[in-house]
């Protein structure tokens, strides 16, 4: 089977659909009509992309897109509020949308054997997320410190000398270089103890937007001109301070904890990764420590 028969999308009460082990090259946007769908399996096909309309499946609990040709996941997946298990092993994913950190029901995330060089800064911030498998992403050298207390699989990570062809900011500490997501525009250091004005302005706007019960969406922001890219960042911060929870937009203060120096070292032998705490200020980065 190369395409999904459209008639399937008329089955509005269908709860489980398994189209694994076919030759599917695309999924039609009409899949959004399967409003009752709870389990969708598309493993072992030839999918190069997924339709954003998957994000309209509000009942979806399981999504398996392993063994395809995916280079990205749709940002709109974060609207699948019921999603508990997301599996995308053995694809060609370069990064994960940071919006996925807003999936508050997600319990298990499996992204083994992809091309990930970075993970979203907030990954693991949700207490519901307990299982994260990113084994065999050879370019991945840094895990967000939120993952320290979770069940993680990272065998085969960080073994590549070359990080990525993408131009990414990096945090150098001796031999170790951990790339940062492209949304992070600057790395705070000890010598720049004051947060840049743009960052302060965005934190203030974000705080104003979320503390007022009258303005809940981006459309009700004060009538000032903000570049679209910054507006999108305002709606979904690049991350939250691993120490105090403050929203962060363009600047982070990272601190690296090499795995070999942590209590988990003995459990992860064939790997070379670090935990990275991303903080909002030099004060938080100094106060941060890894905790189980
Ligand atoms: Zn902080």
TrEMBL record:
<dbReference type="InterPro" id="IPR050216">
    <property type="entry name" value="LRR_domain-containing"/>
</dbReference>
<dbReference type="GO" id="GO:0005737">
    <property type="term" value="C:cytoplasm"/>
</dbReference>
<dbReference type="InterPro" id="IPR032675">
    <property type="entry name" value="LRR_dom_sf"/>
</dbReference>
<protein>
    <recommendedName>
        <fullName>Disease resistance R13L4/SHOC-2-like LRR domain-containing protein</fullName>
    </recommendedName>
</protein>
<feature type="domain" description="Disease resistance R13L4/SHOC-2-like LRR">
    <location>
        <begin position="30"/>
        <end position="113"/>
    </location>
</feature>
<dbReference type="InterPro" id="IPR001611">
    <property type="entry name" value="Leu-rich_rpt"/>
</dbReference>
<dbReference type="Pfam" id="PF23598">
    <property type="entry name" value="LRR_14"/>
</dbReference>
<keyword id="KW-0433">Leucine-rich repeat</keyword>
<dbReference type="InterPro" id="IPR055414">
    <property type="entry name" value="LRR_R13L4/SHOC2-like"/>
</dbReference>
<dbReference type="InterPro" id="IPR003591">
    <property type="entry name" value="Leu-rich_rpt_typical-subtyp"/>
</dbReference>
<keyword id="KW-0677">Repeat</keyword>
């Amino acid at each position: 089977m190369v395409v999904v028969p459209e008639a399937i999308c008329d089955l509005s009460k269908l709860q489980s659909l398994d189209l694994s082990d076919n030759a599917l090259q695309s999924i039609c946007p009409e899949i959004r009509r399967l409003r009752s769908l709870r389990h969708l399996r598309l493993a072992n096909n030839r999918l190069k992309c997924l339709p954003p309309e998957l994000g309209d499946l509000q009942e979806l609990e399981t999504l398996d897109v392993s063994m395809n040709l995916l280079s990205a996941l749709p940002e709109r997946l974060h609207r699948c509020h019921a999603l508990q298990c997301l599996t995308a092993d053995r694809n060609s994913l370069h990064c994960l949308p940071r919006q996925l950190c807003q999936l508050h029901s997600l319990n298990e995330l499996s992204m083994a054997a992809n091309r990930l060089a970075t993970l979203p800064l907030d990954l693991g911030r949700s207490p519901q997320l307990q299982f994260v498998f990113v084994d065999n992403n050879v370019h991945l050298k840094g895990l967000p410190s939120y993952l320290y207390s979770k069940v993680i699989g990272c065998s085969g990570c960080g073994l590549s000398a070359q990080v990525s062809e993408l131009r990414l900011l990096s945090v150098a500490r001796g031999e170790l270089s951990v790339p940062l997501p492209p949304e992070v525009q600057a790395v705070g250091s000890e010598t720049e103890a004051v947060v840049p004005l743009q960052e302060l302005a965005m934190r203030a706007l974000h705080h104003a937007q979320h503390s007022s019960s009258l303005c809940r969406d981006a459309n009700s922001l004060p009538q000032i001109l903000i570049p679209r890219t910054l507006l999108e960042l305002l709606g979904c911060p690049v991350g939250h301070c691993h120490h105090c929870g403050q929203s962060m937009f363009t600047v982070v203060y990272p601190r690296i904890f090499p795995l070999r120096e942590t209590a988990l070292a003995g459990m992860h032998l064939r790997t070379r990764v670090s935990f990275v705490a991303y903080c909002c200020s030099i004060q938080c980065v100094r106060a941060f420590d890894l905790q189980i």
